[in-house]
Amino acid sequence: MKKIVILLVFCLTLFIGKDFAQCVNADFSQGNFNGWTGSTGDNDYNSYYNIIPGIVLGIPNSPPSDSGRQTIMNMPGTDHNTGGLLSVLPPEGTSSARLGNEIVVLDYCSGGS
Question: What is the pLDDT of residues 20-72, one digit of tens each?
Fold first, then answer.
């Protein structure tokens, strides 16, 4: 029994001080796209081309008719694409990101670095 306890304590100490990767600003709580990457381009049936790296920022809280392709939302409101049924903010959250606008059909962002 004593050997098992010593082994268990040894194994637990291996994890103390170990750095675990964390997604920077994964919940957009910084009110911006820090820690996120994005790109624009064309997609024809899973063929991606004309890819331009970078996030095309919209003015925060701007309507979907704005030319921004990725927009931080940090004011209460509802998503008109859901008939006003869904909030633009997550429960107990302060910010979210809207991908796309009424001009562009598809947008993509990735985060976590």
Answer: 557 889 999 999 999 999 888 887 878 888 888 988 888 898 888 888 888 99
Query: pTM of whole model > 0.85?
Result: no
Provide the sign of the torsion angle of the four alpha carbons 34, 98, 95, 90, taken in this order: negative
Burial 23-40 (b: 16+ CB within 10 A, else e): eebeebeeebbeebebbb
Amino acid (1-letter code) at residue 101: N
Measure the CA–CA gap between 42 and 21, rounded to whole angstroms.
Answer: 32
Look at the block and give the residue holding tokens 């931080």.
Answer: 72
